[in-house]
Amino acid sequence: MGTVGRKAELGAAIIVLGLLALLLPWSSATVASLDFVPSDAYSILTGTVYALGIIVILAGIAVLRLKEEE
Amino acid sequence: MTAETKSVRVKIPMTYVVALVPVAAALNIIGGVINSALRLPTFLDMIGTAVVAITLGPWWGALTGVITNVVLAFVQSPVALPFAACNVVGALVWGYGVRWGMGKNFVRFFILNILVALFVTLQAVPIYVFVFGGATGHFSDMMTAAFLAMGQNLIVSVFSSNIIVSLADKILSGFLALAILEALPKTLVMGLEVTKAERMQKIAWIVAGLVVAVLLVFIYVYGLRK
Asked: Does the beta-carbon distance from A47 to B126 stay under 8 Å?
């Protein structure tokens, strides 16, 4: 196996964040069915998408700041 | 910074990533499961995230955090999935913090752990309040209820209870990660300015022993119940 740099690091992180986004609808529906959760599935999905969106924006900023050294 | 040191920090052997990320995720998952089984006033699901974020990089730490919460969502409770964002924020603050000189000595590293707790709480409070309505079944819910009974509003109550739990958890996780770093290959940490923790290696072994012992007791107790 070779070596990996910042580009691979960010690429892998963004792929996993995408996979997390794909799981959010399932998670929202499952969480909404729990007894102690007062919110509905749409509200839960909205909240989690906002939380994830901040991370994706930070990942984008990190990509933009990536130096062309690799 | 020398050219050799810089090359170590920029390029990491793929073997380290393949070996360390799953092990760190497993450490997080075990910590999270033990924590919820014992109903401790901590989270213990970010020790591996801290190790990976400090050694390999902040976004590898983020990857570890997401893997942790996705697995916890399937094996434990779907409540864990929205909190993946908190694990990612913790990884970013630990990873970038150490790379910006916050790990040079114990005092700076302690402050870094406090910053991690603060940023993770700032990310967690909206999830607690707007997604779960303030309660997730964690130990901190009792503190939230106590703050609400004192007349505070929901956001302040959740923030107050979460920051108390988060401070304890992140300081514990950060220093346990520091102890684990001592056991890692020197080539993995030689490019980083992280304070040494020779004496803490013994504590890490003691903690590891305790964790294994508690795990065995739980397996035994659950085995007897069934």
From this structure: yes
> From 1.10.10.60, 1.10.1760.20, 1.10.287.3510, 3.40.50.1980, which CATH number describes the B3-225 domain?
1.10.1760.20
What are the pLDDT tens digits along chain A (70 aa)? Answer: 688 888 898 999 999 999 999 999 999 999 888 887 878 888 889 888 988 999 999 999 999 988 765 5
Query: Residues of B with CB below 8 A from A27's CB?
Result: 73, 78, 81-82
Closest-CA distance of chain A to residue B27, Å? 19
Ranges of each domain in chain B:
3-225
Enter the pTM of the model.
Answer: 0.84
ipTM, interface predicted TM-score of the complex: 0.89
Element (H or E) spanning A55, and its range? helix A41-64
Q: Is A49 on the interface with B (CB under 8 A)?
A: no
